[in-house]
Design brief:
The chain has 8 helices and 11 strands. By secondary structure, it is an alpha/beta fold.
Length: 254
C-alpha cells in the first residue's frame, strides 16, 4: 500500500482487491496492468497470474484476488489521509462478491478519520447494489468517463446516496460537450500517459473546465499526459487547477 501516492488528487492508496478486466477504451493502456506485472515479477503473490502478455504488453486476464489481510490497513493509519480505494482494480467488478464489498465499506465506516475515494467503470453494478451498502460521509464515489459513449455512467452515479460524487474524465479520449453535472461535486480531467499514450485535444479540457465553472463544480486538471508526462506538465491556460469539493467536504464529520 502506498502512503505517499504519486497520484495528484489523492494522498494514499489501499488495495483490498487486485486484478481486473478490460471493459472500455479507457482501459486499453491502464497503468495498473503494467504495474501488476512488475509487482508479480518482484515476487508479490497478490498479483500473481492477474495479467497476461499480449502484443508485448501486460493485459488484465480477469483474475480477481480478494486480499482479506489488507482490509484493516486504514484502521492502522492514525493520521487522517485521503485514500484512493483499489487503484489496482475495480471494487465493483462483477467477480467481487457483494459480501466483500460490504467488508470494505464497513472498514471505511469505521475509519471515519480518513476520506476514501472510490472509482468505478462498472456504474450499473454500483447503482444496482448501492442501497445494500452503508454510505458514510467520508466516502467519495466516482465514475470514469473517457468519451461521450459512456456518459450514462454519470446517471448511475447520480442515483447513489454517496455524499460526494465525482467524475474521472481520464484518460480523456474525446470531447465531452453538454455534460449533465447536476448533483456532481468534483471533476478530474487528464490525458493518457505512458507507452502508446493517445493524444488529447486541449479544447476538450477547456470545455470541461468551462462547464464545471458554469455549474459550480470543483475542477482538477491532472495532466496533459503523453509518453513523458512530467515534461508536458499540467498547466492549463497559464494556471493549474487543483480545486476540491471543499464546501461539502468540510461538512464531513467524524
Amino acid at each position: 500500500m502506498a502512503t505517499n501516492s504519486p497520484i495528484e488528487w489523492t494522498e494514499a492508496t489501499w488495495n483490498p482487491v487486485a486484478g481486473c478486466t478490460i471493459l472500455s477504451p479507457g482501459c486499453t493502456n491502464c497503468y495498473a496492468m503494467r504495474l501488476a506485472r512488475r509487482l508479480e515479477a518482484m515476487g508479490q503473490p497478490k498479483y500473481a497470474g492477474t495479467t497476461r502478455v499480449s502484443g508485448g504488453r501486460a493485459k488484465w486476464n480477469g483474475k480477481i484476488v480478494l486480499d482479506e489481510a489488507a482490509l484493516n490497513i486504514p484502521l492502522k493509519w492514525k493520521t487522517p489521509k485521503v485514500i484512493f480505494v483499489n487503484s489496482m482494480s475495480d471494487l465493483f467488478h462483477e467477480n467481487v462478491p457483494l459480501e466483500f464489498i460490504g467488508k470494505v465499506f464497513d472498514v471505511m465506516q469505521r475509519a471515519r478519520h480518513h476520506t476514501f475515494q472510490i472509482l468505478t467503470k462498472r456504474a450499473e453494478r454500483l447503482a444496482s447494489i448501492a442501497n445494500q451498502l452503508p454510505w458514510p460521509n467520508n466516502v467519495w464515489m466516482g465514475v470514469s468517463v473517457e468519451n461521450d459513449e459512456y456518459t450514462d455512467r454519470i446517471d448511475h452515479l447520480r442515483s447513489t446516496p454517496a455524499f460526494i460524487k465525482f467524475l474521472s474524465l481520464e484518460p480523456l479520449l474525446g470531447p465531452l460537450e453538454n455534460l449533465d453535472l447536476e448533483g456532481i461535486d468534483w471533476a478530474i480531467a487528464g490525458g493518457e500517459s505512458g507507452p502508446a499514450a493517445r493524444p488529447m485535444d486541449p479544447d476538450w479540457v477547456r470545455s470541461i473546465r468551462d462547464q464545471c465553472v458554469d455549474a459550480g463544480v470543483a475542477f482538477h486538471f491532472k495532466q496533459w499526459g503523453g509518453v513523458q508526462k512530467k515534461q508536458t506538465g499540467r498547466v492549463l491556460d497559464g494556471r493549474t487547477w487543483d480545486q476540491l469539493p471543499t464546501a461539502k467536504a468540510s461538512a464531513i464529520s467524524a
